[in-house]
Amino acid sequence: MAEKKDMVGYRQQPGKLPFTRPGSGGKNSFSEPRDESMIPASQGGEKNQPWGSHRHDELLSGRVIGKPTSLIDSKWKVTGQAHYGDDIRLPGELIGKIVRSPHHYAKVLSIDATKALELPGVIAISTGADASQKFGVLPVTKDEHAMAVETVRHVGDIVACVAAENEMTALEAVRLIDVEYEVLESIHDMKDGLKDSEKPIHDRGEYHIGEANIQKRVFQEFGDVNGIQDNAIASHKSNWYFGGVNHAATEPHAAVAHWDPSGRLTLYTPQQVPHYVHRALADVLEIPMHQINVHRTFVGGGFGGKSDPFPHEMCAAILARKSGRPVRITFDREEVYWLNRGRHPSHIEMNLHADSKGRLCGIETDALIDGGAFASFGHVTTYYNGVLHTAPYEIGAFHYTGARVWTNKPASGAMRGHGAVNSRCAVEVGIDDLSEQLSVDPITFRLANLLPPHSATITGFRVTSIGMRECLERVKEESGWDEKFRKMPLGRGIGIGCGFFISGSGLPIHWDPNKFPHATVHLKIDMDGGVTVHTGAADIGQGSDTVIAQSVAEVLGLPLDMIRVRSRDTDTSPVDLGSYSSRVTFMNANAAISAAMKIRQELIEATVKITEAPAKKLVIGDRRIFRKDDPAVGVSYLEALHKAQEERGALIASGAYRTPPMGRAHKGAAAGLAPAYSFSAYVAEVEVDPETGQTKVHKVWAAHDCGKALNPLAVKGQIIGSCHMGMGQVLSEEMRYGRDGHLMNPDLLDYKIPSIHEMPNVIPIIVESNDPEGPFGAKEAGEGPLLPILPAVCNAVYDAIGIRTHNLPITPDKMFKAIEKKCKLLGIDDPLNLPSPIIEHSELQSTLKARAKTHTQRDIDRRLNDDIEAYHNGALFGMDPTIPPDEVDEKWTVSVLPSKEYLSNPRLAGKAWLHTERRRRGD
Amino acid sequence: MMRMPPFTLHTPASLDEALEIALNLQDAEKEFDWVAGGTDLLPNYKWHLNSKKNVISLANVTELFELKATHIGAMVRLHELVESEVVHPVLAKAASMIASVLIRRSGTVGGNICLDTRCYWFNQSENWRESIDWCHKCDCGTEADCRVIPNQNTLCVATYQADLAPVLMCLDATIHLASSTGTRSMQLTDFFELDGMTRNKLQPGELVTHLTIPKDSAQWQGDYQKLRQRESWDFPEAGVAVMWKRNGVNAPNDIRVATTGLESIPGFHQSQAQHALEDWNGKESIMSLAESIRKAVKPVQNTWYTPSYRRKMTRIMTKRACAGLLEDSK
Fold this sequence. Notes:
The structure holds 2 protein chains of 2 kinds. Chain A is an alpha+beta fold.
């Protein structure tokens, strides 16, 4: 037979069998039929698409996308084999310890390490003199040193560091280092930061604002600001204070630095953003980036608290260079609080105005935020406190003044829901109050004021998909809202809160978006069929490795166990901007899909060669490529792969993602821009004890529009976890400073994270608005879900006891004080006799209901219609929806500088504009 | 990582041996601490708070482990109290509210009674305390002032935050101590001594062996109420125990009230309780008793909640602890 003739000359040797072929790859050797329930209707499958089709529909093989999937690294974690920062043990390691300032603000006059160096076992000591270069996460505000150069700026600020043979010796050496200080007058109240100071905490040179401690100020006005007062029939004003909170990730920070025999540095660190550390290390150590490998270890929780390049990472590298041995620095919990970067303590004045038609004719916000001693992400935070509440509602005018000041506290920074959480809480509580003033249902009010799909906000953000309406409708129905709201007895209440959040920052921190991609993913497939994914996306426990593996597996029709993700080393992974701004799923999965599409194309071409079937007719199923109309005609994945590999070996592909051009041109227009936005609405049911002021959250219905749940299990986990974290901020968590400015609770006993007993029953509700640009339609689910829980609880507390709280956390002592005050006001002796709020709808209610109904149809038309007209914020107020109103109407302003008139009577943060930048003073 | 300073651990297997080790250390002028469950002492050691070079563990001293309705050994674990069927239910309830289940499995009755007093300016790391120039309770040789109430360095106002003491006081418990010179006993109400540093009557080398509860304790009913931010982990910001005895009629024959978490020692409020018994009038008597307890306590600003709130809640908790008095006597 011909086939046998072919074998002539080929000697089969034991152990050298031909490579297995059909059906192989993966643990199950049989290809499973396609799961038609996961194939969208646009591709002839059974999955309904109420939000229309998606550009990635044809890539769906029905394998893993949309199915609850346990994270691919979960077994590593639950079996204790995941190595976190402090688990890295290198031979010959030294232990690094840090000398910290006992003063809030002081000049370092001298550092004497003589005694410490004499201690046996002390190998190296380093001070600020060893690293003079500044660094910081944002290129515009580099204001940190590895160790103090001349000045310490808060208690716990790093002065020097020690490397010793063991921890006890290192600790002893820290005690033996004599530091002489000249104590300076410190600032603790953020309001004092607005004033001129003899010695500001930082000196910005010609860009310094007056002689004050103002790090950043923002002024923005959009829309019919001057018309607010005339148009408003109801106004809400509140002055909020939000205590600062810390991420309190389970894993304290740790870093191991090692200069290898080739003279290259490897830094092992649990980082959210390895790339920025990479850059900062190069700056501080004054060596090229290619001489550094940043190895991201497993990360025991980030939440924004591991997204700056950190001084202790520099210290480890400096000590390792000095000693010639690996150095490990692990923080104790107190040190985590000194590093902080948590949510800013904030004073926020919120003004909301509604007109006679029940429209939000104005939002005026003033946010003074306490940055602590360093800039960190604060430049962005200052913008976010304003711009991130310009949706989901259509508004008639927006006025925002924001300022971030330095104080002698540990630095504030980015934390889950970055910059949006506090002001969002104030907006949503304000809407509740406005609705009450107008005697309308607060959910109806919201439903009648939503932006439609494919619209632009008042600040010019491009909203693509929006599932806000569905979120509101679902929580309303599932919570039994109509039967409960304003109808429960004293002490029981229900409240609503909404939120929206960026799904990836539109502007990368370090480069022009039109020149480099935000995310790049490399794929490599050799003859074993397994796919190696190289990505720099940092899995910080949120499941980014899993979502990227899922995306590749889905496009190639492979089981997850055939995908191996290599995301740890900057040596091997393409540059990625890291895990912040809820960007990873959107950007990296998009990059992974585009890389996988290239491989998919090659597999299909190979299949065409083998089967001679036309490419158009081929589909990918479980490890098999076959004719859609005749599934018997097809080849296994491995057959196609080997065909494709003929002549060239392993297949490789690179995919990248870059945001499209977006936004407007005013100063600060890029802050808050995102390729997509997530939306959420929560209803919380609470119990408030009128006699003690204690609040207990019983149940939360939490609807989140994540576009498409690539992994519903992970999305639900994010929603429930967000509820826990947000509940901590609203009820009990606070970095509390004592009368002399000392942080009183830098430990987990006194920093009150809710325990399991405080945790309500959370019902996660996933809404899938099918974002046109998201990977398979997906948007973020990591940060947005945190926003609504705060106002939902605050509003529920009001429903329970008729008290509006404007001071978080609502600890029972504060609540009780408010109850006492209310009792006194009403002349009631026993708080158990307080009246419970009730509602009787006004005529406006039916107007709003009718408008909401009309808008529902409008929104469906806009999301399903391919050819849609532009819709700019302002249409609800009678403007032409297709043109930005400021281009046609003089009343609609776009302004980023305060007028003289404003400066004659500025709000609190607005006072920052009373100072003149040094370079403009002409002195 | 917070590290304990090094110490020598002694592990006697009997009470006599423990007392002998203590005597020898005293003779050699070496300072030491007893350690029972370690859930209070060891965190304080990690914070370098008054740590000693020698620690005598009672883990193997079997004489201290006995648990009966009338006898509670100092080394009985808090979790055993919770699970026990012979322990008075109010005591079991109070025990069940201490810290978390993990800590209760290690922490002991003796350790809880002798809990070190706590204060925001004291329970902090060495670095932290250096930043406030230390405090009176752990002055590291600096003769530092009290940071809660400055300009008086005679009294430490750190707060006693143990849950068991008020209930045991209301049960009329007797505490039994032992040292190399012998044993002595006293009413638990007499055991504490006002000062956040002195805390109680224990002399150097002396330890708590057990508590005894009168046989009639089963006739006493009552409740323990605890104020805290979270239903786990947290020490009491205030705690009120109320116990009463009724002989088949609704009016009580006797009432005892004790508080914790409010001052440097637990408070036993005998006169207030006796006053309430006079002309017992149900709800009104309870309200005036609650008010008198509020007036009797004087918390300071050194825990999570404000002193005024803790005081006001003392009233509410007393009222709530008395709720059973409004039910018909069985």
